Amino acid sequence: MTVEKAIYLKPKKEVSILRRHPWVFSGAIRAIEGAVQAGDLVAVHANKGRLLGYGHYSPGASIAVRMLTFNDEEIIDQDWWNSKVRSAVDMRKQLGLMGVAGNSICRLIHAEGDGASGLIVDYYDRVAVIQTHSAGMRESLDSIQEALIHSLGSELVGIYNKSAKLLRKLKIAAEDGWIYGAAPDDWKPLEYGGAFEIDILLGQKTGFFVDQRENRALLGRLSKGKSVLNVFSYTGGFSVAALLGGATKVDSLDSSSRALELAQINAEANGFGKDAHGCIEADAMEYLKSGVTGYDIVVLDPPAFAKSVSARHKAVQGYKRINSRALESMKPGSLLFTFSCSQAVDDRLFTHTVISAAIQAEREVQILHRLHQPPDHPVSAFHPEGSYLKGLVIRVN
Ligand code: SAH
Fold it and tell me: For 168-208, how does the pLDDT look when each residue is reduced to its tens digit (9 = 90+)?
């Protein structure tokens, strides 16, 4: 492929690219050729000129190039986009997450995990929600839209672009909105049989935390006849899974009244009234201090406490505090589902943090399950940073 614009790396900086890691940091660049602008496709060369592949350029960002291909013969055209999206769709179908009765919610494109650094697409029953995290992906929006229509056919009736907040952080002007069709009248996103109202426009991320599906399913299997407290519930994903699994009583706790309103709507949409599902609008830490003796299972799924490596120490203290607070008053034999979605806190560190929380709470605990993000949020073998969600199921004795 002829790409006029090129960047040349400093000596030895090609090593990670040769290992197919998709990020070129700004400090690794020796020279730039051509009038390169934000979002341009650039050819990436090693110091002495060897062509390493092509990627999207982002001036001013610490990740200056996000590689799209490491193949010097590949051409990034509409066919390339079509086959990228087609392959992502095929994988979700292979996993039984799309085109099946009972499940119509999944992540369709997971950035680096699907070889598309800077792009997230979630799928909610015939509606795709796109988040572009880079100038290059924003420039590629038309191609992405066309590829989604091409690959999904009648399984797609609307595409919503929800990138403005992310792009404004990069000082790129953008507006959210429907770029193709809209949600159908009979829209009914399902996760393993559970129906969910997805607030695409005002909700967090693309509207729903798709990444907890398998962990919610595990909770469902363990919930029969149990009482469950779902802390940091958002719109009640874990709560609905527990209710469908036969929980006798579930309480959703969140500091956001809007999230709780939707949690209640979601419980009701699945046939559970206020007797089975309660809402607690509170600060999680304050509430946990008052004790959680009454529950058989407690879920702790806080927002990312560490958004960067520099924030890691404080984040670990935060995880330790909420976990020890919960463990202190949980009844013997009960289960704690505890999570971290901070990429900067890895599995080992999270496990150590929860263990030290148990020591502080003076509780004997057993680790029953180690949990992760599901396979529709794949981790590229060449980009281990893509692994971000981790959790433990702990039995408190
Ligand atoms: N478990 C959810 C996702 C949790 S997202 C799911 O499966 O969908 C994190 C949630 O924590 C958000 O809904 C946010 O409103 C809530 N939150 C953030 N800080 C909080 C606090 N201090 N106390 C209670 N809830 C909080």
Answer: 988 888 999 999 999 999 999 999 999 999 999 999 999 99
Is residue 272 within 8 A of residue 243, CB to CB? The reply is yes
Tell me the CA–centroid distance for residue 339 and ligand 1, in Å: 12
∠ Cα 12 13 19 (to 5°): 100
Paired tokens of 288: 């946990």
Contact 129, 206 (CB under 8 A): yes
* CA–CA separation, 39 and 116 (whole Å): 14
Q: What is the per-residue pLDDT for 133? A: 95
Pocket test for ligand 1, best of 198, 233, 260 (most atoms within 8 A of CB): 233
User: Which letter, b or e, does each residue of 344-373 get, where b requires 16 or more Cβ atoms within 10 Å of its Cβ?
Assistant: bbbeebbeebbbebbeebebebeeeeebbb
Centroid of ligand 1 to alpha carbon of 302 (angstroms): 5
Instruction: State the distance from the centre of ligand 1 to the C-alpha of 284, rounded, in angstroms.
Output: 9
Residues at CB less than 6 angstroms from ligand 1: 209, 212, 232-235, 237-238, 254-256, 259, 283-284, 301-303
Cα 131 to middle of ligand 1, angstroms: 21
Residue nearest to atom 13 of ligand 1 (CA): 234
Which residues, other chains included, contact 372 with Cβ-Cβ below 8 Å and sequence gap of 6+?
Answer: 387, 389, 390, 391
Q: 118: left (phi > 0), else alpha (psi -120 to 50), else beta?
A: left
pTM for the complete prediction?
0.96
